Amino acid sequence: MKNFTYFRPTTAEQAVALLENRWGNTELLAGGTDLHDLQKEYVAQPSRVVSVTGIGALAGIRVDEKQATIGAGTKLAAIAEHADLRRHFPSLCEAASDIGGPQIRNMGTLGGNLCQRNRCWYFRDEHTPCLLKGGQRCYALDGENKYHAIFTQGRQCVIVNPSTLAPALIALGAGVNILGPKGRRSTDLAKFFFSPANANDREHTLAANEMVLEVTIPVRNWANASYEVRQKLSYDWPLVQAAVAFQGGRNGAKATGVRIVLGHVAPTPHIAEAAMKALEGRDITDANATAAGRAAAEGAKPLSQNAYKIRLVEVAVKRALLMAAGMKRYWEM
Ligand SMILES: Cc1cc2nc3c(=O)[nH]c(=O)nc-3n(C[C@H](O)[C@H](O)[C@H](O)COP(=O)(O)OP(=O)(O)OC[C@H]3O[C@@H](n4cnc5c(N)ncnc54)[C@H](O)[C@@H]3O)c2cc1C
Ligand code: SF4
User: pTM value?
Assistant: First the structure.
């Protein structure tokens, strides 16, 4: 690992003042479960590291009757275990409790989860100069791409966004509050993610001198669930994830305001518009959930080794919908 100067400010304003307006030389550090890995592999080589662990106000969860607010420095384990979050947003808490293993969840934070770098093995290999490291080509396009994107149209880099909290939060209509040199700004979390194409891009739309302060989620008593298809049950990322949220859809009520967001299939969390339309105003039945699953996979353009993910999308969406509607989990019987 390259030597670096370590800063530990006690306010978010001090942290932002220490950042630079280009990526690379100065990096924010939260739990370190991703950044330190990248440093050890010489993929990230900052000469200045700004830890947010001394900013007490950055961690914490507040839930009132209108909204939940989760500080960027909140540990994943705290999100997974929080009783009020679990009552309103089981999709989020399930997603948090499936991440990595206990060590990762006890160190990793919400901000780090949303801003973590992608897991493409070419990107993570110090010696492979792909597009995101200033090179001229994407090695995954005609290489080992079984864990890469299937919604690839118009993409030069075919990573999948690695966050499993992001699809759940976007389905729930979350927003994100950001601090930069000009003060605070807010955006929908759905607009926070970005499809990178070169070494100056990140997987999100933050500027290099901005940081995530907190995420807000409206409390509206909607049904919600997240279903992940995983090869390994721990210490790995899902192959495919579907997060859903809707009003009604239970006890004979039609589902409205349907949100279906896919994870691990595109460079950004993928909003499955066709599936949302297919289900809007309908009952959540086995047949309608199956049709929504098929619609969610529409438009996929898989790579040479990952067409198998299309079927996984169909299954994940169907199961997430049935779970949210409180129906029998036939796959567990
Ligand atoms: C074996 C393993 C399995 C995993 N499985 C999953 C999984 O299934 N699903 C999943 O979602 N994740 C998974 N992860 C990733 C894990 O969730 C992340 O490593 C963790 O959330 C990162 O949080 P951190 O606080 O440690 O971030 P750090 O490593 O400290 O930082 C990560 C990045 O975020 C930036 N950052 C941190 N905080 C902020 C902030 N407030 N504002 C702006 N930028 C910030 C840092 O600069 C850095 O670029 C796994 C990790 C491992 C090692
Ligand atoms: S998918 Fe992206 S990160 Fe992976 S090799 Fe291609 S350009 Fe690099």
Answer: 0.98
- Residue 293: which domain range? 223-332
How many A from CA of 116 to the centre of ligand 1? 4
Which CATH number do you get for residue 317? 3.30.390.50
* 161 to 4, 110, 181, 196: CA distances (angstroms): 28, 15, 27, 10
Alpha carbon distance 204, 18 (integer Å):
20
CA of 260 to the centre of ligand 1 (A): 24
Tens-digit pLDDT profile for residues 72-111 = 999 999 999 999 999 999 999 999 999 999 999 999 999 9
Beta strand extents in 53-123 (DSSP E only): 61-63, 67-71
For residue 104, the ligand closest to its alpha carbon is: 1
For residue 157, being part of any structural domain is answered with no
Pocket of ligand 2 (CB under 6 A): 118, 120, 122-123, 130-132, 138-140, 157-159
From the CA of 121, how far away is ligand 2's center (Å)? Answer: 8
